[in-house]
Amino acid sequence: MRAACLLPEGSIEIRERPAPSPGPGQVLVAPRLVGICGSDLHYYKDGRIGTWRVRRPHVLGHEFAGIVTELGEGVGGTRVGDHIAVEPIVPCEACDACRRGVYNLCPRMRFTGSPHTDGALQDLVAVPARGAHSLPEGMDFALGALVEPTSIAVHSVRRGEVRPGETVLIIGAGPIGLLILAVALAYGAGAVHSTDLDDGRLALAADLGATTAVNVGGLEPEEILERTERPGADVVFEAVGSPRTLETALRLVRPGGRVMAVGVNTEERIPFNLLLAQSMEATVIPVYLGRDAFPEAISLLASGRIDGTRLVSHRFPLERTSEAMDAALSVSSGAVKVMIDVAGPGGGNG
Are residues 80 and 138 in the same domain? Predict the structure, then answer.
């Protein structure tokens, strides 16, 4: 079978590999559409995220939907032919975090598509059946591939305890920031403001319902407040992943508000302005992946309460995975969510 292998030096090659077989408790999946995530781009560009490094040929891809082709021993509740979205977290199910139900915090977690567990950019992949979530009949695979990032947005909004009528500001209008916008609106938030440096993504944020969509290039926090919400938003979501934008979030939240640290920093340690957080009595809440959010994410996308199709900007076949990664990295490509069509031939932009 074909696999798009990321090599330690940073290039991607299409290689032939033996087809896997599902082990006990696993299902074999034929991926159909696979979304490229920011973490995939970090591995492609930098070869690592924190201590997780690409040390051997590795298959990326953790945002995906596909068709079940084979069941491993002991699998029930899933059938061959089912259309599924796959939750990539593979917890140990034995540690304290897993026993308490916070499996996304499992210290022994494996994660489909990270350097220790190959992902979906290949013709077949074996995954734990516990992570297979059935899609409603007729749900497009592109929406299925958006379930994983939407689950992160759902978990983020839950963690932020966004209540009806509250004001929300989102720093970053990438796929996660846009999905947080959509989920916050679905939860009944009042004014929801989006900020970014890309006018194309801000236009999409406005189309998705943002109260204001502000290009913050060259603006100081006080100027951003003038254009969004003074004296600050009840909840600010940082969806970029940089120390600078995390501090900006503290300057855009109202006193006593909540700052949600959603964006992933590639460095393990970053500077943090504790005095500023203390002076605001702002609650800073980290978010790590998602938890128990796939069913709600599927419902929001399948029902059309979130118009996920608006986020899909490009589609490429598996053979053009390198080109897809470059498009996702390019500022000039207009990319929002780039997807790989593993099964189909053809195309650039979809």
Answer: yes
